[in-house]
Amino acid sequence: EVDLEERLHELDLRSDSDIPDVPPPTDSTPEILKRALSGLSARWKNWWIRGILSLAMISGFFLIIYLGSFMLMLLVLSIQVKCYHEIITIGYRVYHSYDLPWFRSLSWYFLLCVNYFFYGETVADYFATFVQRREQLQFLIRYHRFISFALYLTGFCMFVLSLVKKHYRLQFYMFAWTHVTLLITVTQSHLVIQNLFEGMIWFLVPISSVICNDITAYIFGFFFGRTPLIKLSPKKTWEGFIGGFFSTVVFGFIFSYFLAQHQYFVCPVEYNSETNRFVTECEPSELFQIKKYSVPPLLQAVLGWETVNMYPFQMHSFALSTFASLIGPFGGFFASGFKRAFKIKDFADTIPGHGGIMDRFDCQYLMATFVHVYITSFIRGPNPSKLLKQLLILQPEQQLSVYKTLKSHLVEKGILQPSLRG
């Protein structure tokens, strides 16, 4: 025990340059692929492995879309947990913190606490009718924030009690590492689900745009790349960056046109308490109804069209695709800088040729925040349906008070006739 304390104390005093290397991930490529591609150079072998696995993941993604919004939510939750595991594991390895008392358990405890808070907020916001019918849930929702705070406070006190003399700084390193990881993974995945509730199209177009940009930038860079883009990612080139931008904008415009035609993709996801299922049925909003637009004079000469019919959402898809291709990659650059700081190639070896789950979703988290901000800033207005659900939860005397106040306001505005005052 004394030897362990001395070793941890020495490690605690090291500078960043003395941080030990993390062991490189093992090669998880299936043997059948290794044998089939054995005659190729390393460059082309990686190309084929990445291509085959990309097609497999995209096919699986389409299957989950077919299974519905609930399965997509489970997918987001699974990815969040795996990304958290990959990042937190690097911290364990770098700081040799496996032997610190309680810390491994506390890291996962904090993940459960934060998820409990965010998903409880979602249940209270979107499933009010369902909660109203079950007394035990009413108690949990009524005191949800207090319970969440109490759970976190328990973990906080456990951390303080676990502090070991001479190793305080190392333990606070890992405490901070855990909370930054929670901020990156849990908060962003919650925003992804919030976007999904606005309509599956707000989930699919941004995610698909990032995937398209990642694939097309890799293809353009592989075949035409000559000019380095950024030192953090030596393999990234200007040719790939520019080619990915134009490809992503075109893809987003076409893909959104296809999705905007179907209620399944454009309607907000709502929970039907009678059937206990998620439903996507509605009268599509103006964003998803064909409109005629005048073509700018400069383009009229080129295209030969004076007007064009399109969905208003396609204009928004241009903004989403632009962000995915110009700003989204900076999430990848950030991840590259993180990996270089700790001398690792990938976050893990979960997906052959791609690295870990976090390697594939480093840009998605940045995209999720942008979409959420974009929707709240430019799209979403007051939601009468959500407000009505909240009113139905109130006590009868509270509902009557709201009714009288609203009636008085409408009379003052001249919307209701004075004869209806009584």
UniProtKB/TrEMBL annotation:
Top-level taxon of the source organism: Eukaryota
Membrane topology listed for this record: Multi-pass membrane protein
The UniProt record lists the keyword Ligase: no
UniProt EC number: 2.7.7.41
A single cellular component GO annotation: endoplasmic reticulum membrane
Catalytic activity as recorded in UniProt: 1-hexadecanoyl-2-(5Z,8Z,11Z,14Z-eicosatetraenoyl)-sn-glycero-3-phosphate + CTP + H(+) = 1-hexadecanoyl-2-(5Z,8Z,11Z,14Z-eicosatetraenoyl)-sn-glycero-3-cytidine-5'-diphosphate + diphosphate; 1-octadecanoyl-2-(9Z,12Z-octadecadienoyl)-sn-glycero-3-phosphate + CTP + H(+) = 1-octadecanoyl-2-(9Z,12Z-octadecadienoyl)-sn-glycero-3-cytidine-5'-diphosphate + diphosphate; 1-octadecanoyl-2-(5Z,8Z,11Z,14Z-eicosatetraenoyl)-sn-glycero-3-phosphate + CTP + H(+) = 1-octadecanoyl-2-(5Z,8Z,11Z,14Z-eicosatetraenoyl)-sn-glycero-3-cytidine-5'-diphosphate + diphosphate; a 1,2-diacyl-sn-glycero-3-phosphate + CTP + H(+) = a CDP-1,2-diacyl-sn-glycerol + diphosphate
UniProt subcellular location: Membrane
Entry's family note: Belongs to the CDS family.
Name of this chain's protein: Phosphatidate cytidylyltransferase
Species lineage: Eukaryota, Metazoa, Chordata, Craniata, Vertebrata
Record gene name: Cds1
